[in-house]
Specification:
Pfam families: Acetyltransf_3
Strand content: 35-45%
Radius of gyration: 16 Å
Oligomer: single chain
Structural class: alpha+beta
CATH architecture: 3-Layer(aba) Sandwich
Protein name: GNAT family N-acetyltransferase
Distance between the termini: 15 Å
Number of helices: 5
Keywords: Transferase
GO molecular function: acyltransferase activity, transferring groups other than amino-acyl groups
Order of helices and strands: EEHHHEEEHEHEE
CATH class: Alpha Beta
Number of domains: 1
Helix content: 25-40%
CATH superfamily: Gcn5-related N-acetyltransferase (GNAT)
Organism: Pedobacter petrophilus
Largest sheet: 8 strands, mixed
Length: 185
């Protein structure tokens, strides 16, 4: 069975980025992103009420890492490592089936600059090479064309369309599921 037993949080680097652990110093930026309707347009989650809610979320991310349930990174530019610009990470790790769901979001000031592409590639490589995942899945809102295109660019294949499977804000919403199988398996 798959296990995630890291002695310390894995910090990852790309040409332009550092992917690091969440910190309470990220709370204001994370709050701003999770209450920005441009960022959250296709992320069907309740908006945080205040900074305390965000600090609770950060604590859950960090505890999730310690418990081996998830691995969520903050994205920062190497030239400004204190300023969070986005997130990428694995959620809902299914140990028995060597699967995890990947998710990501980015501040609008950094859209269309290849940042998510760069961060996603690094996270996928880490998931397959270090975590030994067999499959990475992604669940997107059917209206999110940008996310769909990024997933396809990285080799993900649409596996399912679930009709009205998710209830949010008084509506039943459709979900698209994408999957990527470890090419080394």
């Amino acid at each position: 069975m798959l296990t995630l037993n890291f002695t310390k949080f894995p910090v990852l680097e790309t040409e332009r980025l550092i992917l690091r652990e969440h910190s309470f110093s990220d709370a204001e930026t994370l709050y701003a992103m999770r209450t920005d309707e441009r960022v959250m347009k296709y992320i069907d989650r309740e908006r945080p009420a205040d900074l305390l809610t965000i600090k609770t979320i950060i604590t859950k991310f960090n505890e999730g890492f310690e418990n081996g349930n998830n691995l969520a990174w903050i994205i920062v530019l190497k030239e400004n490592p204190e300023q969070m610009i986005g997130t990428v990470g694995f959620w809902q790790t299914d140990y028995a089936n060597h699967r995890a769901e990947i998710g990501y979001m980015l501040h609008p000031d950094f859209w269309r600059k290849g940042i998510i592409t760069e961060a996603l590639k690094k996270a996928i490589d880490f998931g397959f090479e270090t975590m030994n995942l067999h499959t990475i899945k992604a669940n997107i809102n059917t209206g999110n064309e940008a996310s769909r295109q990024i997933l396809i660019k990285h080799g993900f294949v649409k596996e399912a369309l679930f009709k009205q499977d998710y209830y949010f804000k008084g509506k039943f919403l459709d979900s698209e599921i994408y999957g990527l199988i470890n090419p080394n398996h």
